[in-house]
Design a protein that fits this description.
The strands form 3 sheets. The protein has a 3-stranded parallel beta sheet. It has a 3-stranded parallel beta sheet with strand order 6-7-8. The protein is mainly alpha-helical and about 290 residues long. The protein is globular and about 50 Å long. Helix 4 runs parallel beside helix 5 and helix 6 runs parallel beside helix 8. The protein contains 12 helices and 8 strands.
């Protein structure tokens, strides 16, 4: 938690000194950013450790929310006090503390992110949440099942954040099953298709590989529930077109070439995500938490 607070302090310092950036806490911030043509960012507690392993997870969650974090993963690469990650072959599901965290996020207006959750944990989080949830970045298991993929595991365990984490002999799949995709969509949530070659099934991934996952997710979830989900950029097998942010308009061109309608493309490149963000963040109790 100490390291996370230090990072947030740096973020507030940078954003306080930059007039060209906008930190998003409310739905209205998005419209403001678009009107002023300023890049917007939504702060994301990606690894969950900052609050999941704290002595008082709910109190730590409140602190992070009060400091402007709006997206929350419940796990990352190992089991914690809330739930299990995909990296564990045996998923024991959502704990009582995990249910309390989901409930508190619903009360606050925080976005619940199932990225990196195991199968059982993800399904139980969907059931426990009174609000739509999201998977910020995933692939489709029906297109590529990466369970126990050693290439991906090697890449993970070469990273500093994996030091001290036991490497399992057997893992689940990082990609979402059709059951999870449908459950998220049926509750009004969104599924982001990421661009990481290891888990899409091709290294480095091409636009065609990514598009196969996108098409499958749309088939299962419907066009109103699928978005582009990038993930972070330090892995070497990102889709080459995604390595430079200035290339991202080419994704739109690619979707046009694949025959998608303008309305559907608008939904996938941001419209569905903005709808989800607006719905969840609009629940915030501003009398209690104002960054």
């Amino acid at each position: 938690m100490e390291a996370t607070l230090a990072h947030l302090a740096c973020c507030h310092l940078v954003y306080g000194q930059r007039d060209d950036l906008l930190h998003v806490c409310r739905p209205a911030d998005i419209e403001r950013g678009r009107a002023e043509r300023r890049p917007c960012s939504i702060w994301h507690a990606a690894a969950a450790g900052a609050y999941a392993e704290a002595d008082e997870p709910l109190r730590s969650l409140d602190i992070l929310f009060g400091l402007g974090v709006r997206m929350f993963q419940l796990t990352y690469i190992q089991k914690n006090r809330l739930c299990c990650s995909w990296l564990q072959g045996d998923d024991s599901g959502l704990t009582d503390e995990g249910r309390a965290v989901v409930k508190r996020l619903n009360e606050l207006g925080g976005m619940v992110d199932l990225a990196h959750c195991g199968e059982r944990s993800a399904l139980e989080i969907v059931e426990a949440s009174d609000e739509p949830v999201m998977i910020s970045h995933t692939g489709c298991r029906a297109v590529h099942d990466d369970a126990s993929d050693q290439t991906y595991l090697n890449a993970i365990f070469e990273q500093p954040y994996a030091r001290g984490v036991p490497r399992p002999e057997r893992t689940g799949s990082r990609n979402a099953s059709d059951e999870i995709i449908k459950a998220v969509a049926d509750r009004g949530g969104v599924i982001g298709i990421y661009v990481l070659g290891y888990v899409l099934g091709e290294e480095p991934a091409t636009f065609g590989t990514w598009f196969r996952h996108l098409e499958h997710a749309i088939e299962v979830a419907g066009i109103d529930h699928v978005v582009v989900g990038s993930d972070i950029s330090f892995f070497p097998t990102w889709t080459p077109m995604a390595m430079d942010w200035t290339n991202w308009p080419y994704w739109t061109v690619g979707m046009v070439c694949r025959g998608m309608s303008d309305d559907d493309i608008r939904k996938v490149i941001g419209g569905n995500y903005l709808r989800h963000l607006g719905h969840v963040l609009d629940k915030q109790p501003w009398g209690e938490f104002i960054p």
